[in-house]
Amino acid sequence: MNTSFTLPTAGLKPSATLAINEQCNRLLADGKDVIKLGFGQSPFPVPTSVVKALSENAHQKDYLPVKGLYALREAVAAYYRRQYELSCAPEQVLIGPGSKELLFLIQLIYDGDLILPQPSWVSYAPQAQLASKRHHWLPTYQEDGYLLNPETLRAHCVRYSSRKQILLLNFPSNPTGSSFDESQLGALAEVAKAHEVLVISDEIYGDTHHHGQHQTIAKFYPEGTVISSGLSKWCGAGGWRLGTFLFPASLRALLDQMAVVASETFTSTSAPIQYAAIKAFEGGPEIAQYLQHSRAVLGRVGNKVHGMLKEKNINCPEPVGGFYLMPDFSAYQSHLNQRGIYTSSELCTTLLEETGVALLPLSDFGMPSDFLGARLSYVDFDGGLALQKIAEDPSANAEELAPKVVQGIQRLTNWLMSR
Q: Helix or strand or coil: residue 138?
């Protein structure tokens, strides 16, 4: 049988984030001492009330509407009205089996080139390839916290003025931990609006902002922004696979077309999960406390790791949200080159082999292969225990909350300093 294929998948490899998790799990199963700072999964348990709602709805077995359970769409719209004072209705919400699937579908349907800040999450560019889309990497700079500069976006839009453009923004950022403030969002929105760019605002980490101060670009460009979110990061429910898209009323036709494609692909999202998600998006005192404590833990651990890296002359933006840092090991380039390490991939491979510390190379995030940097995910700790500790002692330090993460950074810096 001829097994050759000429499909858009040519040259693609498995998702780097999923691959590193599976590799670490294999090493752990073999008895290796591994510290998992590569995979970006929330360490926290799903809030008790949301788990209870899932249990109470385990009997729900019917296919739900393609666009999602109406009561859930109502809860999502109410969340955006409450949280960001956006004017929106349930009819503007689309539910999917994870935001990742929805991000792919919108690229498949919308006619336009994809704009990606460099670096960006590992799956955006491969999805563009699968959807047969052209994608353009726009440079970002250390002095800007590796956030997209409005003038860089403007220059790109002028250069490609004859083509429709889709800007995919992710903030707080995976892989940098940086985020935009209101003035920066306003400036980007002004450029996007002037050039009629469709903005897909991936705000899956919005509620993990360490100070609870996340804002959405939809406040400044409501008619041209689709907000992507879900349960995976702030609610600790990555494996539940539930994502949300909020469309402006002006893009209702795009929502409808995505639903048509969804009806021929995933049909609808798991019924019990959708019923349980209502509880999550409705919020309330328990959810508010959960967010307060999880943000405190992430802020405490992120700041500790950032400080440990800076002490060793390893530059990275200060973490504002999410659970990532982007360490730049360029200060050690000569030393690393002497050890035969010239790429971020070689750096991470050698580090895992010699120390058991797993990071992801920045080449997987669109950075040049010779940029000696990595994505570091500071979540290898018992999230349930950390929440309990921070509730009992608000001054608990990172060593108490995430001892394995601190140990991993010590191993990493000791390895770098060794000769």
A: strand
Residues constituting the chain: 419
Q: Is the pLDDT of residue 150 over 80?
A: yes
Q: What are 190-246's pLDDT values in tens digits?
A: 999 999 999 999 999 999 999 999 999 999 999 999 999 999 999 999 999 999 999
Class of domain 16-45+286-417: alpha beta
- C-alpha 285, offset from chain centre: 26
Q: Does this model's pTM top 0.85?
A: yes
Predicted confidence (pLDDT) at residue 28 exceeds the cutoff of 70:
no
Class of 62-284 per CATH? alpha beta
**Each residue of 291-335: pLDDT tens digit?**
999 999 999 999 999 999 999 999 999 999 999 999 999 999 999
pLDDT at residue 187 greater than cutoff 60: yes
What percent of the chain stands above pLDDT 70? 93
Residue 352 contacts by C-beta under 8 Å, 6 or more apart in sequence? Answer: 23, 34, 358, 359
Domain with CATH 3.40.640.10 in the chain: 62-284
Burial 313-338 (b: 16+ CB within 10 A, else e): ebebbebbbbbbbbbbbeebeeebee
Category of 244 on φ-ψ map: left (φ > 0), alpha (ψ -120 to 50) or beta: beta
Q: Name the one residue in this structure whose structure tokens are 């923004």.
A: 169
Q: In whole angstroms, give the CA distance from residue 369 to residue 377.
A: 20
* Cβ pair 261, 359 in contact under 8 A: no
Domain(s) labelled CATH 3.90.1150.10 in the chain stretch across: 16-45+286-417
Question: How many other β-carbons are positioned within 10 Å of the β-carbon of residue 187?
Answer: 17
Kindly give the residue spans of alpha helices, DSSP state H, lying in 204-362: 252-263, 271-282, 285-311, 333-338, 344-355
How far is residue 154 CA from its own chain's centroid? 25
In degrees and rounded to multiples of 5, residue 15 shows phi and psi of -50, 130
> Is 230 in a helix, a strand, or coil?
strand
In which residue are the tokens 């909020």 written? 246
Beta strands in 364-407 (DSSP E): 374-377
Buried b / exposed e along 158-175 (16+ C-beta atoms within 10 A): eebeeeebbbbbbbbbbb
> By three-state DSSP, how is residue 245 classified?
strand
- CA-based nearest residue to 96, from 124, 64, 119, 125: 64
